[in-house]
Write a structure and sequence with these properties.
It is a single chain. The chain is of the alpha/beta class. It folds into 2 domains: 73 residues; 240 residues, NAD(P)-binding Rossmann-like Domain (Rossmann fold), CATH 3.40.50. It is 47% helix and 13% strand. The protein contains 10 helices and 9 strands. Strand 1, helix 2 and strand 2 form a beta-alpha-beta unit. Helix 4 packs parallel to helix 5, helix 4 crosses helix 10 and helix 7 packs parallel to helix 8. The termini are far apart. The structure holds nicotinamide-adenine-dinucleotide. The site of nicotinamide-adenine-dinucleotide has 30 residues, from helix 4.
């Protein structure tokens, strides 16, 4: 068995898609032995945000052990039984949610205005053995939200989880900002979050409860000398989340906000290399965050592990706000 373990450990770091496990010895591996190895390959890809889900097991294993293993494989996820709608699921933090939530057993609807990218993320999840569907969703349109929620329910039977993640950003001070751009920022980042909750809550109630995570920003808590409309929209997301948490606390629907610091995604594409370096130098951990590091925060908040957690603001910023 140690030979097998060795080859599997080697494979673990390289595999992206279904793992083929071929025991070198022809003897039967016990359930415990195979489960231990599966545990390693199962959880490692999840930690890396790789949508590798279902290892293919070939080799010798008794039928009884096989049945036990199959049972394990069907219920490995922290979000098993959940149906999640992720807005802005085509890119960055939203796409990381789609991948990781699928790895953890959720059925995922990814909504976005970027159709090609959204379909690519969903295709990747499906090829890895997960369950995900793309819908076109402009979060500032109430009718799009109704369609996305309908799609979740008709395809997967219910809606239990909402990640209000879609967002836009540009740096603009008070005098430079235009009314037109201000209205756009508010329509997507703020009104879009309210519309999402409004559309999703009735289905969550029907499902017997649910969890909502609204992706705000560190800029929803602290100020900066630019980005007035972004601050306004993200500050609103923070306080709307607390209001919603109180409104639905007795109905089994939990609402929390996450406040990312600087995360490496296309939304920051406008930064110069010098600005990137300045951000890294000013961040206590010495680097920018990864989209997965936000999605893992949501994973906790959307799982049943967080049953007593509502109305909180989870800051994930590499220590920035501790300074
Ligand atoms: N990256 C960061 O540093 C950072 C920091 C704090 C907060 N955030 C927040 O995280 C969220 C995700 O951003 P990201 O960093 O992954 O950026 P991103 O640009 O990679 O992703 C944003 C996604 O939202 C989608 N989107 C934009 N307008 C939309 C609309 N009207 N309807 C539906 N989808 C729309 C985009 O198409 C895109 O796929 C945003 O709300 C953002 O404000 C990001």
């Amino acid at each position: 068995m140690s030979g097998t373990m060795k080859s599997l450990a080697h494979c673990r770091w390289e595999c992206k898609y279904p793992v083929v496990f071929i025991p070198k010895s022809r003897r039967k591996a016990s359930y415990g032995e195979v489960r231990q190895m599966l545990g390693e390959i199962f959880h490692e890809p999840a930690r890396q945000g790789i949508p590798s889900l279902i290892p293919t097991i070939t080799g010798t294993c008794s039928i009884a052990d096989n049945r036990l293993l199959r049972k394990e494989l069907i219920m490995p996820g922290r979000l098993a039984g959940k149906v999640a709608l992720v807005s802005g699921g085509a890119s960055g933090i939203g796409a990381a949610h789609v991948r990781i939530f699928a790895v953890e057993g959720a059925k995922v609807i990814a909504g976005d205005i970027q159709e090609e990218m959204g379909k690519a993320v969903v295709g990747e999840v499906r090829r890895g053995g997960g369950e995900a569907t793309f819908v076109r969703l402009d979060v500032s349109k109430e009718s799009d939200w109704a369609h996305a929620v309908r799609e979740a329910v008709s395809r997967y039977g219910k809606l239990t989880t909402l990640i209000n993640n879609a967002g836009i950003y540009w740096p603009q001070g008070i005098e430079a900002e235009t009314l037109e751009k201000w209205n756009k920022m508010i329509a997507v980042n703020q009104t879009g979050v309210w519309l999402g909750m409004k559309a999703a809550v009735p289905e969550m109630r029907r499902a017997g409860g649910g969890a909502i995570v609204n992706i705000s920003s560190l800029y929803g808590i602290i100020g900066s000398p630019s980005s007035i409309s972004y601050h306004a929209s993200k500050g609103a997301v923070r306080i709307m989340s607390k209001a919603a948490a109180l409104e639905y606390a007795r109905q089994g629907i939990r609402v929390n906000s996450i406040h990312p610091g600087q995360i490496e995604t296309p939304i920051l594409a406008g930064l110069t290399p010098e600005q990137n370096e300045q951000i890294k130098a000013a961040t206590p951990v010495g680097r920018m965050g990864k989209p997965e590091e936000i999605a893992y925060g949501s994973l906790y908040l959307c799982s049943d592990e967080a049953a007593y957690t509502t109305g909180i603001e989870l800051i994930i910023d590499g220590g920035w706000s501790a300074q």
